[in-house]
Amino acid sequence: MARKDTEQYRSYEKDAFDNPPEGPVGVHRGNRPMIVRLTPFVIVLVAAVAAGVLFWSIFSGEAANMFNRRSEQTQTTAQTSQVASSSSADESASGAASHSSQSASASESTSAEDTPSQTPSESESAQSTPEESQQVNTNAQITVINGTGVSGLANDRAGVLQNQGFTNVSAANPDATTVLPAQTVVYYQNEADLATAQQVANALGITTVEQSASIGTPIQVVLMQ
User: Fold this and answer.
1) What pTM was estimated for this model as a whole?
2) Which residues contact 207 (CB under 8 A, 6 or more apart)?
3) What residues form DSSP beta bridges with 210?
4) Region of residue 215 (left: phi > 0; alpha: psi -120 to 50; beta: else)
């Protein structure tokens, strides 16, 4: 007959395992805070926003580069067209100027051929009266030199010129530097004084009028015997 096991739970002394704590025992996960539960969603949202910003930056930069390239191409095309237009305008202007020059040369040649040459009488008439194209200067300085030895003759001739409207007339005797001519003469310094000298000669009845750069006044009258 088998031996009856009389040892039971109560037969052993109690230890720490016989006094378990109250409440659930074993693996247990309590309620987590709200911030812990929302953290994954926040991370996903931030990652999505960062990805969107990165994508937008890349796309906008590429779009800006494409726009700049198109603008540069447009400007280059416009400049090329402008240069071509300017070249065409310059060539047209050069052609027009050349044509105008040729036309002007042809017109001048035709005019020169069609214009009749002057006859000898017309040329002599134009050369014989140069003083008509000049003006008489009644304010020109005029000196009347008495080379005759007759007292008062220079003053008398100066008075005649003053009566003719000449306002700057003086009488003088020859000095050591005066070269007396062989006959009475009216000298003038410059071509502009020719008409005035001729008018003086006509007023005094003198036929000889000569140009001389050595006289001291624009008009000089030398009276001789």
Assistant:
1) 0.43
2) 201
3) 187
4) beta
Report the interhelical angle of 194-204 vs 153-163 (nearest 10°): 110
State residue 212 phi and psi, 5-degree precision.
-145, 125
In whole angstroms, give the CA distance from residue 107 to residue 152: 64
**pLDDT tens across 83-122, in order?**
666 666 666 656 555 555 565 555 555 554 554 454 444 4
Tokens of 129: 């009266």
- The phi, psi pair for 143, rounded to 5°, reads -120, 130
HSE, CB side, 13 Å, CA atoms: give it for residue 58: 5
Work out whether the CA dihedral 163, 165, 170, 176 comes out positive or negative.
negative
d(CA 142, CA 121): 35
Predicted confidence (pLDDT) per residue in 12-67, tens digit: 676 666 666 665 555 555 667 778 778 888 898 999 999 888 888 777 766 566 66
pLDDT over 60 (residue 175): yes
DSSP 182: S
pLDDT tens-digit series, residues 73-90: 777 776 776 766 666 666
Residue partners of 135: CB distance under 8 A and separation at least 6: 195
**Residues facing residue 146 across a β-bridge:** 223
Q: Where are the alpha helices (DSSP H) in the chain?
A: 34-114, 120-128, 153-163, 194-204
